[in-house]
Amino acid sequence: MNISVVVPLFNEEESLQELCAWIDRVMQKNNYSYEVLLIDDGSKDKSWEVVEKISAENSNIKGIKFRRNYGKSAALNVGFAKAEGDVVITMDADLQDSPEEIPALYNKIVVKGYDLVSGWKAKRYDPLSKTIPTKLFNWAARKASGIYLHDFNCGLKSYKNTVVKSVEVHGEMHRYIPVLAKWAGFANITEQVVEHQSRKYGVTKFGLERFVNGFLDLLTITFVSRFGKKPMHFFGVLGSLMFMLGFGVFTYITGSKLYAMFAAIPAKNIAEMSGFYIALTAMIIGVQLFLAGFIAEMVSRNAYDRNNYQVEIEV
């Protein structure tokens, strides 16, 4: 099979029929063998009834329904597990992603050999309240990940099948699938300028809180990607630095006090010096950080996937 199209959806009953017909026209025009996986993320409207109707009319279209709303990451993760196509393409169900982009995304994987192609909506039809935070978010993601994409959160992406089978998308990590792919060893990543269409039906399902959540997820994935299998390299180094800093200040205070005693110079009691408590606090924090790293290292070494490495070729 050439292509699997994974479409997460939540309350999109108006757009599904049009979207699937559009995808089918593009596939037929280019003679692609394909499947469409519609992942209903606990919709409250009649989306699932529409999915059942479309699936009955077209055997290439399949549906999966969640019992409740789990989020876009969960829908993508399930879709990735089910996808059988050589190339997996994701798009949103609200018709803001154009199926006409599929051939170009497919060719960049098959012909040019990229692992992942991310859509870039260079011209957007969104209000400034959405576009400005998006630009800031993408800037921070580029700096933290080292992957220079203009639009990490674009739902229109294409992947080699091996990529989606090698990443686990959970929480709200769908924004950072390129980072997860790079972490799994698929670093041949590029982007493709795609058309952003204005919303035709319904309203957006995401609010401003997604930018706060996105920033927190960025911190999480940056830390886990760098120190997930070696936490002592972070906590141990930081703890050692804190302890040495506190110990250095304590040594200086103690040495100064002893010098004053032997030289008969009036000096404050150590317990009356603020530096003593700063040094003591720094040493305690340093020990706690070191112990946190030690415990995290033990947990990491007992994780089920501690020796799960991605083997590309074996002869």
Question: What key phrases describe this protein's structure?
Answer:
315 residues; alpha/beta; Spore Coat Polysaccharide Biosynthesis Protein SpsA, Chain A; 2 domains; seven-stranded mixed β-sheet; 7 strands
Helicity, as a percent range: 40-55%
Order of helices and strands: EHEHEHEHEHEHHEHHH
Total helices: the number is 10
Domain module count = 2
Q: For the record, what CATH class of the largest domain applies?
A: Alpha Beta
| Amino- and carboxy-terminal Cα gap | 26 Å
Structural category: alpha/beta
Strand order of the largest sheet: 3-2-1-4-6-5-7
Low-confidence stretches: none
Provide the CATH topology of the largest domain. Answer: Spore Coat Polysaccharide Biosynthesis Protein SpsA, Chain A
Shape: elongated
Average pLDDT, all residues: 86
Taken as a percent bin, the fraction of beta residues is: 5-15%
Number of DSSP E strands = 7
